[in-house]
Amino acid sequence: MDPETRNQREGGGPPHLVAIDIEEHPGGRMLPVWFFVGIIFLIYGVIILITGLLEIHHPPATVMAAELHPTIWWGAILTALGGFYVFYFGPWRN
Amino acid sequence: MITHFLTVPASWLLLAAPATLSPHLVDFAIIVIYFLMVLGIGFYLKRYTKSGQDFFLAGREMTAWVAGLSFMSANLGSLELMGWAGSAYEYGILAAHWYWIGAIPAMLFLGIVMMPFYYICKTHSVPGYLELRFDHATSGLSGICFAVMTILMSGVNMFAMAVVMKVLLGWNIHFSIWVSSIVVGVYVAAGGLFSAIFNEVVQFFLIWFGALLIPIIGLIESHGWHGMVARIHANFPGQDFTHLWRGLGHFNTNPMGIHWTGIVFGLGMVTSMGYWTTDFLVVQRVMSAKDLRAAKMAPVIASFFKMAVPFIVILPGLLALAVLPFHLVPQSVAKAGEYTYNAVLPLMLGRYCGPGLLGLGITALIAGFMAGMAGNVSAFATVWTYDLYRPFMRKHASDAHYVAMGRWSSIVGILVSIGAAYVAMHFASIMDYVQALFSFFIAPLFGTVILGMLWKRITSKGAFWGLLAGTLASITMFLLMRFDPRSVAVIALSPHAKVMAQNVYQALWSWVVCVLVTLIVSSLTQPRPEQELVGLVYGCTDIPSEGHYPLLKRPIFWAGVSFAVFLLLQWIFW
Predict the structure, then answer these.
(1) How far, rounded to the nearest angstrom, does the alpha carbon of residue B176 sit from its chain's CA centroid?
(2) Residue B225 contacts residue B301 (beta carbons within 8 Å)
(3) What is the pLDDT of residues B80-92, one digit of tens each?
(4) How far apart are CA B475 and CA B473, in angstroms?
(5) Fewer C-beta within 10 Å: chain B N or C terminus?
(6) Which domain holds residue B292?
(7) A66, B198: Cβ pair inside 8 Å?
(8) How many structural domains does chain B have?
(9) What is the least distance, in Å, from the CA of A1 to any CA of chain B?
(10) Is residue B2 over pLDDT 50?
(11) Could you tell me if B469 and B511 are in contact, meaning their C-beta atoms sit under 8 angstroms apart?
């Protein structure tokens, strides 16, 4: 980054000139943090959803409100959210 | 076959039993995946952290959302989650004051009024600001206090977390301390603030999605808010746990033993302002923002989430008052077989979450702990390198040298934290002291920073002696109240004041001492010429425009919305 840009970024210049894009970093194009959020949610969502489906006929007896099957719908929500983030912010998107 | 594999109790992993929760293999798989993920992020980001700017300020490239979420997450340590859920069980909804009046006005003040100064003076840290505004002595004093306290806090939290893991899961204390700190040390040393911030954002989502099921299912079980209130009245007749302000007219009409003046002035104006505007741990996240608008916007965005946190922290405590078939007790009187207040969140987690979800909930607690610890370590590395090492030991080294120092001080910080954890293990009472001292140091620091920022007449000598006097005053009051209970009635204005009420009044008085001494010494000494204060003091500085944006993109607009929501919450739960 040239000194002028850095100076502007640190408060000098008007913000519309502060053309910072995280992807311009010299280390190469950096994946956005949302992609990592997506990966972990997708993995967790799938694991939890499968666990919920496997126990659908015999929900854990020690857990209150297990008949509502929170494991299934929470797993589904995580899977959907994670899938969306991975798809939308992954390295295949420009 | 797979079902059996997933739900067999993984007791072979436990080194001691019995524990509060009984996780299954699938839960352990979720925890292990989490550890692999944070390490992966740390190594991925290593190649992006070459310069000091990258390592200590995450390249100043963060958008308002990333900086705001990380700002929230650094504050959402798991002890905070469990501790406040326990406080909600003990004090009822009064605990929510620490999330609303004890946070929102201060966060908005940081974003709108103070952030421009921190941002345009190009400092790396809060002590760094004090050095520019005053001198080496004041910044050195605050830098040393901050470095020592941060590392002690980190160690004490580490020990507390290890105790929690032992109680909940039966894990060996040494195992918890070493595994979690090695993981945090590796990812912070690899990617610096970049890595800490990225992981904090991931942790932020995990905390929410891991804990959110408790209030949802809890409200279903207790048939909504009104059903919950009715059950609390049935379980605890004659006590008011569900009103924010109604019982604060007198010290003895609320569970905390506090008066509304303590909440408004002590908490709202001093403790919270001190924490949110001068505690470098949180301010550092905002300094990483990519431009001034993002820096102002980040605390405003965070304020909306902060207002919502009581839903996953305070509400579970209230629900526990309604639905648990037994009563929890304070730590000091707990007998074998009884649960303490701090066990509220894990107990509720075990009540509602089966295999899989339980792992997610435990991961949320671990994530909170690691976010808090990484925050401490990265803040320590910055203050050590830039505010102590550079000015006092090696002034003109290369940028690469300071980055190497940052990486090494992260590792050393972790090791010292581990040492502090072992000290805490042998002197249990040290935990209360360290946490108390940290909060006492922050209150006078806020006096020094705010006076220096708003008034050019404040001198370096005034700042130094004010900060010193305020800090000493807070320590003295703390010791007085611990060792001479009669002084509680004087300092906290009522003999009924519980510990939390005492802390609030101590902070208030130490701030007053700091401000008075600063003003008196400043009036007797010579101020710096005005041209030296440009960019540092209100009135000597042209705040650069944040640009011409439509109303919906302006920080001040969203700060107004946030404040309106805050007022609405006070009215709803009055």
Answers:
(1) 21
(2) no
(3) 777 788 888 888 8
(4) 5
(5) N
(6) 49-430
(7) no
(8) 1
(9) 10
(10) no
(11) no
pLDDT 10s digits, B156-188: 778 777 877 777 777 788 888 888 888 888 888
User: CB-CB: which of A9, A64, A66 is closest to B291?
Assistant: A9
ipTM above 0.90, yes or no: no
DSSP helix/strand/coil, B267: helix
CATH number at residue B257: 1.20.1730.10
Q: What is the pLDDT of residue B4?
A: 33
CB A40 within 8 A of CB A81: no
Answer yes or no: are the C-beta atoms of B235 and B242 closer than 8 Å: no
Using CA atoms, how far residue B540 sits from B113, B293, B456, in Å, is 14, 21, 8
Are the beta carbons of A70 and B353 separated by less than 8 Å? yes
The residues of chain A scoring below 70 in pLDDT are 1-28, 61-62, 93-94
Residue B24 dihedral angles phi and psi, to the nearest 5°:
-110, 180
B240 — contact with chain A (CB < 8 Å)? Answer: no
**Which of B22, B202, B348, B554 should we substitute to test contact with A (largest number of A Cβ atoms within 10 Å)?**
B202
Question: Is the Cβ pair B202, A27 closer than 8 Å?
Answer: no
Q: Which residues in B lie closer than 8 A to residue A74 (C-beta atoms)?
A: 209, 213, 357, 360
B48 contact A CB<8A: yes
Dihedral angle computed from the Cα positions of residues B115, B120, B126 and B132, in that order, rounded to the nearest 10 degrees: -140
B293 vs A contacts (CB less than 8 Å): 15
Q: Is B297 exposed, middle or buried (0-12, 13-18, 19+ CB in 10 A)?
A: buried
Q: Do the Cβ atoms of A25 and B48 come within 8 Å?
A: yes
Assign residue B537 a region (left: φ > 0; alpha: ψ between -120 and 50; beta: otherwise).
beta
Residue A32: helix, strand or coil by DSSP?
Answer: coil
Question: Do B290 and A59 lie within an 8 Å CB cutoff?
Answer: no
Runs of H (alpha helix) within B484-530: 486-491, 499-524
The partner residue sitting opposite B545, judged by closest CB among A14, A43, A74, is: A14
Q: What is the pLDDT of residue A44?
A: 93
Neighbours of B18 (CB within 10 A): 8
Question: Which of B4, B61, B63 to substitute to test the interface with A, most A CBs within 10 Å?
Answer: B61
Per-domain residue ranges for chain A? Answer: 1-30, 31-94
